[in-house]
Amino acid sequence: MIRVILPPHLRTLAHIGSEVTLEVEGQATLRSVLDALEARYPMLRGTIRDHVTQQRRPFLRFFACEEDLSHEPPDAPLPDAVVSGKEPLVVLGAIAGG
Amino acid sequence: MSKVRVLVGTRKGAFILTSDGKREKWDVSGPHFAGWEMYHLKGSPADPNRIYASQTSGWFGQIIQRSDDGGKTWHQPGTPPGEPVAPGPPKSESNKFAYDASDESGKPLTTHQWYDGTQHPWEFKRVWHLEPSLKDPDTVYAGVEDAAIFRSTDGGQNWKELPGLRGHGTGPKWQPGAGGMCLHTIILDPSNPQRMYIAISAAGAFRTDDGGKTWKPINRGLKSQYIPDPNAEIGHCVHHIAMNPKRPGVLFMQKHWDVMRSDDAGDNWKEVSGNLPTDFGFAIDVHSHEPETIYVVPIKSDSEHYVHEGKLRVYRSRTGGNEWEALTKGLPQKDCYVNVLRDAMAVDTLDKCGIYFGTSGGQVYASADAGDNWNPIVRDLPAVLSVEVQTLG
Q: How much is the ipTM here?
């Protein structure tokens, strides 16, 4: 069971609370977790990764276990603590404003 | 009893303003999609309860929203709210705007001109304008940045590019204006379902006469200071085009500078700026019942982007251009420095014709007497990006 925390605007879009839990078949990677997330919440397709290129949107980042995973390869295994559900995978929107 | 519904897109959400035919007392609902940039909302002429909305974000990309009950509830097409989520492949493609690079399109373009003159790949950024079909509530066109036109025939669930526009031979010479290379205007000809007009900043205006398969530039007569060639086929920064549906061959244009008119479906344009205090601006519209009565909001210049002399004035011409009168009653006449964007003016079809516009200061003004008198419906919304009106009942 993987825990995922989304930014507030995406929670509103997907009609979900602060955290979602996902069952991911096979190895848990950024790609497989996001695939599972989008399969369950299709309205999120294109909002985290570009629809066509599948690249991470520039103003979003991925964090887990106090580490920035944004530049990790999409098929790299996620940390054990994320796989076990002890720690969440956090999708974070860049802070901007004045 | 007739009713009007004003659809307002702002930098931080959408608002729906409703009133009866007197247009004196208004109900305000919203914000819908709070915190998101709402570039445009527009109702279907064939089914006024059907409204399409473009919800965008620099963070999260493009979302298409649809209402089937006049704006009370919304959902992403193909993903109705409250529907149980199921495992399996995603159902919704409603956010997907993928440029057509197939061999069938004939000319799969990959680059356009960038600000520095180099070639730059086409990259989808957002939907600027949604234009529902005049006859079919499930058919809707989308004008996007980087400039292209898409069509959905299933109520916004799936989108396909009409690649003949981007594949037009001039594509590699198109370049973005300061606001991006956006296709911001789509006009459907009610007398000829095969004919459509579009406009792109800064490529110019185009027309199709075969339902979107092929397009031709219609910019003859436009003069732009920054283009040395006086006969340039493309490159003009057209800000907006308006048409009275009862007289579809006549078009009015607010170009970057210059207000223009065409009496031959865009084949030729002539300037009608006349006595305007400045002919820079964005918004332009035509009276619903008087096809020679047109409205603009002059903006001081392209480096200032606010109204001239601190006065918010709508200018009306009853002669199809050249002779203009300032409409000021009810509008601030000092210390006003707002802008009115290209899609932020609309007209209803009541008698007398109602005129509406929204400002960068968050006001939406309405006139229930064709512009003679104005009142603010709301004063303190986020900056207004678009205003559309539905006349109901």
A: 0.85
